[in-house]
UniProtKB/TrEMBL annotation:
<comment type="pathway">
    <text>Carbohydrate degradation; glycolysis; D-glyceraldehyde 3-phosphate and glycerone phosphate from D-glucose: step 4/4.</text>
</comment>
<comment type="function">
    <text>Catalyzes the aldol condensation of dihydroxyacetone phosphate (DHAP or glycerone-phosphate) with glyceraldehyde 3-phosphate (G3P) to form fructose 1,6-bisphosphate (FBP) in gluconeogenesis and the reverse reaction in glycolysis.</text>
</comment>
<feature type="binding site">
    <location>
        <position position="136"/>
    </location>
    <ligand>
        <name>Zn(2+) 2</name>
    </ligand>
</feature>
<keyword id="KW-0456">Lyase</keyword>
<dbReference type="InterPro" id="IPR050246">
    <property type="entry name" value="Class_II_FBP_aldolase"/>
</dbReference>
<dbReference type="GO" id="GO:0008270">
    <property type="term" value="F:zinc ion binding"/>
</dbReference>
<dbReference type="InterPro" id="IPR013785">
    <property type="entry name" value="Aldolase_TIM"/>
</dbReference>
<dbReference type="Pfam" id="PF01116">
    <property type="entry name" value="F_bP_aldolase"/>
</dbReference>
<keyword id="KW-0479">Metal-binding</keyword>
<feature type="binding site">
    <location>
        <position position="216"/>
    </location>
    <ligand>
        <name>Zn(2+) 1</name>
    </ligand>
</feature>
<comment type="similarity">
    <text>Belongs to the class II fructose-bisphosphate aldolase family.</text>
</comment>
<dbReference type="InterPro" id="IPR000771">
    <property type="entry name" value="FBA_II"/>
</dbReference>
<feature type="binding site">
    <location>
        <position position="106"/>
    </location>
    <ligand>
        <name>Zn(2+) 2</name>
    </ligand>
</feature>
<protein>
    <recommendedName>
        <fullName>Fructose-bisphosphate aldolase</fullName>
        <ecNumber>4.1.2.13</ecNumber>
    </recommendedName>
</protein>
<dbReference type="GO" id="GO:0006096">
    <property type="term" value="P:glycolytic process"/>
</dbReference>
<dbReference type="GO" id="GO:0004332">
    <property type="term" value="F:fructose-bisphosphate aldolase activity"/>
</dbReference>
<feature type="binding site">
    <location>
        <position position="182"/>
    </location>
    <ligand>
        <name>Zn(2+) 1</name>
    </ligand>
</feature>
Amino acid sequence: MAPVRENRTLRILDAAAAGNYGVLAAIAYNIEQLTALVRAAESRRSPLIIQLFPSTLRQLPTLAFAAAQYVKTAAVPISLHIDHAQDASHIREIMQTLPVDSIMVDMSHYDQTENLEKTRKLAKECHDCGIAVEAESGRINGGEDGIADTGDLEALFTTPEDVEDFIKVDIDILAPSIGNIHGDYGLTGPAEGQLHYDRLESINKQINNRVLIALHGTNDFPEDVMKRCIRSGATKLNVNKLLLEVWNEFYRKNAAAMPLVKLIDQGMDVLQKETERWMDVCGSSGKA
């Protein structure tokens, strides 16, 4: 087994950190979205991290293998990441049976002590399989598809102590809480002062290249907010609605009247163009 630091996700993010740009870690729910994302990466010569939710693995068990095939054959660096894996037995099943590069071991719905202990154990098992590990420090409010909703829990910002605690349990990627939320901010994006860029900058300085930084909660981000987060140290940029809303809107408007094959083709084109635009915004275009 190759050292975990040599796995695809970490190679992609190490290059981004060194080059001061961000990499989209994009959620896909089906083969059409997956294909459009990869086409965008190849068109823009950009690295890409494909993300699948654990719920998607249950719904579409072959999608991970389709993504892994793209990882092997794409003309640019691509990796496969499982986002917000919250069930220890499912995490163990994933690491033993699926060709993934990295897993978010999300124990943030437990208290801090239990979160750290469970993360430590699962990180060791993942690393033994050559799989990189992401974890969430603090608590990012809200819920996403198929994961526990923390909206009724107090939002906890990541502290310097949190950073050290998570580094000690041997994770590779840290997702801090800086005022970001899982869910929607509204049409204009985060409110003024909602995102604590100074906290993100301080975390990045404290980390000092020991781990990498993932940014969660990017729904409704304007371009300038994304760019500022990248300048503040975020390299792995989790995106879901930010890209997929154009796909959703296209289908809402056209599904009833357009022939299916045409609908699929044009929907993929719409998503590819939006993904290319955000690769330009994040600075990853031309980096592969």
